[in-house]
Amino acid sequence: MAPVVVVNVVGLTPRLLAHMPNVAKVGAAATLKPVLPAVTCTMQATLLTGAMPRDHGIVANGWYFRDLGEVFLWRQHNRLIQSEQLWDAVPGMRTANVCWWYAMGGSSDFIVTPRPVYYADGKKDQDCYTRPPSLHDDLVAELGEFPLFSYWGANANIASSKWIIAAARRILTRERPDLLMVYVPHLDYDLQRFGPDAPQAVAAAREVDAALAPLLREDATFVVVSEYGITNASRPVDVNRALRRAGLLEVYTQAGMEYLDPWASRAFAVSDHQIAHLYVRDPADLPRVRDIVAELPGVDEVLGQEGKARYGLDHDRAGDLVAVADPDAWFTYYYWLSDDRAPDFAKLVEIHRKPGYDPAELFMDPDDPFVKLRAGAALARKKLGFRYMMSVVPLDPAPVRGSHGRLPDTAADGPVLLGPFEGESYAATEFKGLLTQLLKG
């Protein structure tokens, strides 16, 4: 039986598929109904488990870990998913995971996932984690180092996706696993930078299609899926600043910089694209917090317990309230009221220290005339082995033009599923069952 290869082309919609002839050949395109929030970690967990967030526990790309008193985004341990996964659905099946999330500690026979190297002197290099460990050196010898500054950030480009696709092709041809799943991130970049209707979005779709062509020619049964569609959005909503002005969010100060103080705050938000999880320490404050957030321009609705249950988001990790943005709006994580009090990580690509998602990382500060010069100087210091700061990210989120997270208003703006399936529309929770049947033959 030919291997089954699942290609996750993040951000792929019916509109963009028209510009991707190689991908379109995989099969008829069915619409896919995402779960709330329609973000990477939640949707991938749903696709892998067939469960809603209330059951698998991945309520966002990150959340407030109440027992630790810390906000963490982009964790990688597979055990955070609390439901049985596709990797284990068929006994004896050999599997390969190339850059799907929550890979580390998973049961896959072959794993490749982004994992920067954090040196003791504070330097950082983009790299990947593999299992078996020997796979790392083999991939580097054949494909070169995992592309620096191309997976995310202002310089994000097609290079990382090409490397990931080549790694998947190498594993497919040499190891022949029964199931190989590969995540291709490139469409995420320019669709958030410029919006899905911009010429750059079409160009990105064509780039991904060309990069996938060699993999799609291999002897395998292919399935192409996406997690969400990105829609036009240009209105940032400063939810944490509103809570701070109301006296509910607190900060502490070090070296003249302000940091979110979740331990002392009566309420704060973990912003994630078009969704914000609102953590409220005292239930008596819930009505007030709901009213403050609901009145902000750009907020569509604020979900309480009943609303969370309606969307299958009623899990202990979720916020006490969950805010959903209007179609053209999204939530910032910003909590400082003056930019001269912002922490140093605010102007960096620093996805693990920011207590919320920051799409401004996709831009270099347009108000800094020396930003490219300073970026070049930082790279030069890095190449010479010195510590460096790539402090180029704007504190003004105005350049952002696309977002996702809320449920799509039309199927044309939602995710898709292509493969040997007969239906015209599927729920994301059906994906695991479809793949299990396909693997069983």
UniProtKB/TrEMBL annotation:
Query: Which InterPro entries does the record associate with it?
Result: Alkaline_phosphatase_core_sf, Phosphodiest/P_Trfase, Phosphonoacetate_hydro_insert
Query: Which species does this protein come from?
Result: Microbispora triticiradicis
Q: Name one Pfam family in it.
A: Phosphodiest
A single GO molecular-function term is: hydrolase activity
**Signal peptide boundaries:** none
TM regions (residue ranges): none
The molecule here is called Alkaline phosphatase family protein
